[in-house]
Amino acid sequence: MKLKKKIKIAIDSPAAAGAGTQAKLISKHFNLLYLDTGKIYRLIANIKLTQANRYSHSLIKKKMLKLTMKDLQNKKLLSDEVGTMASIISKDKKIRKLVHAFQIKSAYHPPKKYNGSCLDGRDITYKIIPNADFKFFITANTKTRALRRYKELKDLNKKISFNEVLKSIKNRDKSDYNRKVSPLMRTRDSILINTTNLTKRSCFLKIKQIIDRKLKA
Ligand code: C5P
pTM for the complete prediction? Predict the structure, then answer.
């Protein structure tokens, strides 16, 4: 499928709201480059956890210059421990600056074969792609998100209880919504999608319909 013009989709969401799943489905359908920006913070968090004594802004700067999409596919980045560390290191303004260029390149200059780009994260709608053609804020209630994340982690054979996941999601929400630098928020021009009572498919169809309508207008 070829679109008449290139499009940019920006999605912000709290942890485990289903944004990644939807962003992937939408990107596949419209043939967009997909970037899960949380994975970049997770990659940096993993360096902090595994090479604490080498961790520095200059090391991260070097890593960011060499960063490829493939680096973000490492399964180790999916653990709860890495997610929690990601929410800590992402409060660092300098780190966010180092991550900026890769996100901008993906959003504004995706490879030619794509019809555009779709990024999800915490500050995408107002900091990374403020002029996005489509903006969504995807959320779900805390228990539902914790249950989804718990199932995902169980599928990956991670040893963690539901209560631990719930606590971790609550802590991450607190930190992501309240931090000074690039806090998670729903901008006025973002369409709210609450996935609590929606199946993956019905959520996808809802988002697809919104995009199709505007593209045809
Ligand atoms: O989306 P995910 O849960 O993988 O993100 C991990 C953490 O990275 C988040 O809790 C958040 O603190 C941070 N993050 C961020 N800005 C983004 C994406 C993720 O601060 N654009």
Answer: 0.97
Candidate from 41, 126, 145, 169 with most ligand 1 atoms within 8 A of CB, to mutate: 41
Domain annotation for the chain: domains and CATH numbers: 15-209 (3.40.50.300)
Q: Name the residue at shortest CA distance from atom 5 of ligand 1.
A: 38
Distances (CA, A) of 135 to 132, 138, 152, 192: 6, 10, 26, 9
Distance 73 CA to ligand 1 centre (A): 15
Eight-state DSSP code of residue 129: -
What's the pLDDT at 27? 98
Indicate which atom in ligand 1 lies nearest the CA of residue 90: 20
Q: Which residues contact 212 (CB under 8 A, 6 or more apart)?
A: none
Cβ atoms within 10 Å, residue 40: 25
Pocket of ligand 1 (CB under 6 A): 15, 37-38, 41-42, 83, 86-87, 90, 121-124, 172, 176
How does pLDDT run across 33-53, given as a tens digit for each residue? 999 999 999 999 999 999 999
Instruction: Encode pLDDT of 65-81 as tens digits.
Output: 999 999 999 999 999 99
- Tallying the residues shown for the chain, one arrives at 217
Percent of the chain having pLDDT more than 90?
97
